[in-house]
Specification:
This protein is α+β, with helices and mostly antiparallel strands. 34% of the residues lie in helices and 22% in strands. The protein contains six helices and eight strands.
Length: 178
């Protein structure tokens, strides 16, 4: 059986990748670009904000180990889904919060999780995460893959990613890989 996949954009893909690689049931996390009009965009092109692409991760997971709903709850609590086209100091459409669904089931679960979090008033502001059909996915350049794991002492990694990963690990201990 092939694993399920979901494509998520929650700001810098280095940050989101570093969280999702640690979840039990996740087999692979691939950084890339999605949602734009340019075929096979480069990082430099996406950073201009002119391609329509978002920095995303493609999460390959075993739904018998971790559910899509659980992954989406982690997604929502490890970035700010209440800001449009921004995550911290990363500003632009390429950093927007988005779930790219591959089928009706994924769309239904995404909308259900948003409704539950809204009802529970998890955030002080409304969730603005885009929920859209997946039209394309282009893998990023190789040096972006496993960036945090390969560059933990880079200033951005120490200042931005390390605290995010520590917060995730503290809140989701029961979901971490052994």
């Amino acid at each position: 059986m092939s694993p399920d996949t979901i494509v998520l954009g929650g700001g810098c893909f280095w940050c989101t990748e570093s969280v999702f690689t640690q979840i039990r049931g996740v087999h692979k996390v691939e950084s890339g670009y999605s949602g734009g009009h340019l075929k096979n965009p480069t990082y430099k092109e996406v950073c201009t904000g002119m391609t329509g692409h978002v920095e995303v991760i493609k999460v390959h997971f075993d739904s018998s180990v971790v559910s899509l709903a659980t992954l989406l709850k982690i997604f929502f609590t490890t970035h700010d889904p209440t800001t449009i086209n921004r995550q911290g100091n990363d500003i632009g459409t390429q950093y927007r919060s988005v779930i790219f669904f591959e089928n009706d089931y994924q769309q239904q679960i995404a909308e259900q999780v948003v409704a539950e979090m809204t009802q529970q008033q998890i955030f002080d502001s409304p969730i603005v995460t885009e929920i859209s059909p997946l039209i394309n996915f282009f893998s990023s350049e190789q040096y972006h893959h496993n960036y945090f794991a390969n560059n933990p002492h880079e200033p951005y990694c120490e200042a931005v990613i390390s605290p995010k990963v520590a917060k995730f690990r503290a809140h989701y201990k029961d979901l971490l890989k052994g």
